[in-house]
Specification:
Length: 901
């Protein structure tokens, strides 16, 4: 008996069948007795296990399994955790897919298996599982799937059975406890000698705490099913025993076995899948980092919003079977296919024209490279000579302090000289920059930075303070000098200036920078806006970023000598790569609507700019504040030859108003996304001509594909799902699919999302955008909304943008959101509108306005609601959050409170 466990932990009881429980088919349930003398057993007693097994159900379907999925639960759950995996396996088999037998065990002393009365340490549990599979006569191929401490046990079994194992998968587990990090706080508390027995055995506190951290909350019948085998202290000894068996240090009896397993895992050369719930208070992301280092071939998917009980929180079952179908379609890795590995190139295949090529060409120029409008003390100009030297110094300094090829560096710096120097220094030495927009908000930024797992953070004071307060990973470099107490409090090790000084000394002593990274090396992780769910990290290689630069340069004739006002973050970062003289206007980058017309005019004057790039929200406020312009401001704006606005659909009316401010400029609205910054382009004249030629088209015309871009459509079925063969036929509504050299490489640690974005595509450069639209007869693309916002009415599929545009033409209406409520296939259309002037509180639209909206919409409308302000995305402040509107409208029309959206 382990010290600290009460006597009741030694209770014995036979294995039993579980009662009828929700989601659990009694046909799966089996009792299996392992003889005492079976080789591999280690406690020399006959033991009876309860397990769930789909072998009989597969036989009833008349299918032969291609392999076995061996599922092992952790503490304090049982095989019930895997019920969705068993169910999904049978659904896949019934649909004609690969049939996998699923065996989900109840570990001894757990679930409905025998209570042995013995303390079973990790070596014993691995041996127990081996004895059970021997008794079952299990043959390969086998894929293991484990959760929590069951992940360790399953991986231990995999290490011991290499002749059977063809793949491994885990959910929130760990195989190594770092020496320099304490075990997580909840476990430290549970392991306290005076608390261990009371919290885990005498009372159900440990079990109840685990059930309480499900996201979303478990339904009562499901929670009761997890409680079912642990009614009474006499049945909870295994829970306490599992906690007591956690190797807190090298002196623990199970520590050698954990070391053996962790070493063995690193030697596994089979496909691997690591599934993770980031909200887990016990299995922190450092354990995922460790697993990815040991299994570099692993596919990783982080389910944002999910936590410790991952198989309850997220679709683990669907993900596992998608993965099995891709990686092990007939139970084995397809011939000629090896487990995928990340790029480890160290620069032997140089990029033909690296991202910093223009900087090298201009390094002897004293012409302006950057203009900072909001610099301390007033406007500051940085020459190409100074910028190139600073980048070299910072790059050499970063190498000197230990930044290496492949390290991730999070840049928490607003656009300007510091951000430019840090970014280009990092990519020059092969580090991967992580760029998450402050417009994501603190919560979104926290998810992004923690998910990207940076090794280093370069930040200004706000970013460093947030990193310290919220526990963001990474060693810290400050962009400014700080007093010693502040440096210590923020855990700042270096300043950017001190890094540059170190680099300058190294270069003066003859040091050279590392070889340029190869074109397929990761260069950046850029985060999406979060307007359609949690922000996603988008990985670009050096070659892909170079392709982005080249397509922008070719499309808009932006290059050396061009003056560029970059009021849109991607252009602020790419300006030096284009060789453009860049200026970031005076504005709050987290709030685009803070940009004024006078600030744009001042920026144009300061940089002698001829190109202006603004987000739609910023452009709208520039137009709204045009009355403040002086004659000199208007004269400056008249020198602009090109202005662009992208990030959300831009109306012809807004572009026309902007043209009044910049009368000599050609107005363009590119279509793209974080995954591909320029896919199509159209100018104002093109929009007007397209609308005139296609009056009833519906949607926003975004023009023709840019150079090297292919656009096709995946038609929608009656349920609003993209299906069928991709087409470029005109007037077919469906998901927009693009392909180009400058499309991103992958999503970061989002295997399932990445798979979905390329499912069915024959071009490795392809990307399913999630937008819906159509091509017209002239080959121009029209965007009609987002795939998840498609409304499936009884009369057919409806996209929202067309009705929104028609309603917005009413005199008393501002912005409009169209959403669907009700079940798929029978959804009703709801219109939610801002009024002019705005209403004071949300409510049903007055009868006259409702009638006008219904007449203008051109589709049957079930209800019209008015609100003071529509909810929008947090980065662009211009994309209407239709999913939120749908939930809100469903609630208020169902009798809920008429709260402000």
């Amino acid at each position: 008996m382990t010290a600290g466990l009460p006597r009741v932990a030694a209770s014995t009881a036979p294995a039993t069948q579980p009662p009828t429980l929700p989601g659990l088919d009694p046909a799966w349930s089996r009792l299996v007795t392992v003889p005492a003398d079976l080789p591999g057993g280690s406690d020399h007693h006959e033991r009876t296990w309860h397990l769930l097994d789909t072998a009989g159900s597969l036989a009833a379907l008349g299918v032969e399994p291609v392999g076995t999925l061996l599922c092992v639960h952790g503490n304090p759950t049982w095989s019930y955790l895997w019920r969705s995996v068993l169910r999904t396996s049978l659904e896949v088999a019934a649909a004609g897919g690969p049939a996998w037998r699923v065996i989900a065990v109840d570990q001894l002393d757990m679930g409905f298996s025998e209570r042995t009365g013995l303390q079973r340490g990790l070596p014993q549990r691995v041996a127990d599982l081996g004895a059970l599979t021997d008794e079952l006569g299990l043959t390969g191929p086998v894929v293991t799937l484990g959760h929590d401490w069951g992940g360790v046990v399953s991986l231990g079994w995999a290490v011991d059975h290499p002749e059977l194992v063809v793949g491994v998968a885990t959910c929130n587990t760990a195989v190594h406890q770092p020496d320099d990090a304490p075990i997580p706080a909840p476990l430290r508390l549970a392991l306290r000698p005076g608390l261990l027995g009371r919290a885990t055995v005498v009372t159900p506190a440990f079990l109840e705490t685990t059930l309480a951290i499900a996201h979303p909350k478990l339904d009562r019948p499901v929670a009761d099913a997890f409680r079912a085998p642990y009614r009474g202290a006499a049945r909870r000894g295994g829970i306490g025993g599992f906690v007591a068996d956690i190797p807190v240090d090298a002196a623990h009896a199970s520590a050698p076995e954990l070391d053996r397993i962790s070493t063995g895992v690193a030697a596994l050369e089979v496909p691997a899948l690591l599934l993770w719930g980031p909200r887990d208070p016990v299995f922190l992301e450092r354990y995922l980092d460790d697993l990815t280092e040991r299994l570099p071939q692993a596919d990783v998917h982080r389910f944002e919003g999910a936590g410790h009980l991952l198989p309850e929180d997220a679709d683990v079952a669907g993900t596992v079977f998608d993965w099995l179908g891709d990686r092990l379609p007939d139970g084995h890795v397809p011939v000629g296919v090896e487990p995928s590995l990340p790029s480890v190139s160290e620069g032997k295949d140089d990029v033909s024209r690296p991202l910093w090529a223009a900087l090298d060409e201009l390094r002897d120029s004293d012409e302006p490279a950057l203009v900072e409008m909001a610099a301390p003390g007033g406007t500051r100009t940085i020459s190409w000579r100074l910028l190139a030297r600073r980048i070299d110094e910072v790059a050499a300094g970063l190498v000197d302090i230990g930044v290496r090829h492949g390290d991730r560096v999070s840049l928490l710096v607003t656009p300007g000289a510091d951000l430019t120097a840090a970014l280009y220094a990092c990519v020059r030495i092969g580090a991967t920059v992580v760029v998450a927009d402050a417009g994501l908000g603190l919560r979104g930024l926290t998810r992004a930075v923690k998910g990207a797992r940076p090794d280093w953070i370069i930040g200004a004071l706000p970013g460093l303070a947030a990193a310290r307060a919220l526990g963001w990973p990474g060693r810290r470099i400050a962009t400014l000098a700080l007093p010693a107490p502040a440096r210590a409090a923020l855990r700042v090790e270096h300043t950017l200036a001190s890094v540059a000084r170190r680099g300058a000394r190294r270069l003066a002593a003859g040091a050279v920078l590392p070889d340029a990274p190869s074109s397929d090396s990761p260069a950046a992780v850029l985060f999406t806006s979060g307007s359609t769910g949690p922000a996603k990290g988008v990985v670009y290689t050096h070659g892909q970023l170079g392709a982005v630069r080249d397509v922008l340069s070719a499309q808009y004739d932006v290059g050396i000598g061009t003056g560029l006002v970059a009021g849109f973050a991607p252009f602020a970062l790419l300006g030096p790569a284009l060789g453009a003289r860049s200026v970031a206007p005076d504005m709050d980058v987290t709030a685009p609507r803070t940009l004024t017309a006078r600030a744009v005019a001042a920026s144009v004057s300061a940089a002698d700019a001829t190109v202006v790039f603004l987000s739609p929200a910023a452009l709208a406020n520039v137009v709204a504040t045009a009355g403040d312009l002086t004659d000199a401001d208007r004269a400056a704006l008249s020198r602009v030859r090109l202005f662009l606005s992208a990030g959300a659909p831009v109306s012809a009316a807004l572009l026309t108003a902007a043209t009044d401010l910049m009368p000599n400029a050609s107005a363009h609205t590119p279509y793209g996304m974080t995954e591909g910054l320029l896919m199509t382009d159209v100018d104002l004249d093109g929009i007007r001509a397209a609308v005139s030629a296609s009056a009833a088209a519906g949607g926003v015309c975004v023009g023709r594909p840019a150079a090297s871009v292919q656009v096709r459509i995946a038609p929608l079925d009656a349920a609003g799902r993209p299906t069928g063969v991709l087409t470029d036929d005109p007037d077919v509504t469906g998901e927009i699919v693009v392909a180009a050299p400058h499309v991103r490489d992958r999503y970061d640690r989002l295997w399932r999302t990445n798979r979905a974005s390329r499912l069915g595509l024959d071009d490795p450069r392809g990307h399913r955008t999630g937008d819906v639209g159509h091509l017209d007869t002239s080959g121009q693309l029209w965007v009609e909304g987002r795939l998840q916002h498609v409304i499936t009415t009884p009369s057919g599929v409806l996209t929202p943008v067309g009705p929104e545009q028609r309603v917005e033409q009413l005199r008393d209406v501002g912005r409009v959101g169209v959403a669907g409520i009700g079940p798929v296939g029978t959804q009703q259309v709801v219109v939610v509108a801002e009024t002019v002037p705005p209403v004071r509180r949300p409510g049903l639209a007055p009868n006259a306005l409702a009638a006008a909206v219904r007449a203008a919409a051109g589709v049957p409308v079930a209800a019209v609601l008015v609100v003071p302000v529509l909810p929008t995305d947090i980065r662009h402040n211009s994309k209407v959050d239709r999913a939120w509107l749908s939930r809100w409208a469903s609630s208020v029309l169902g009798g809920g409170r008429m709260t402000r959206p």
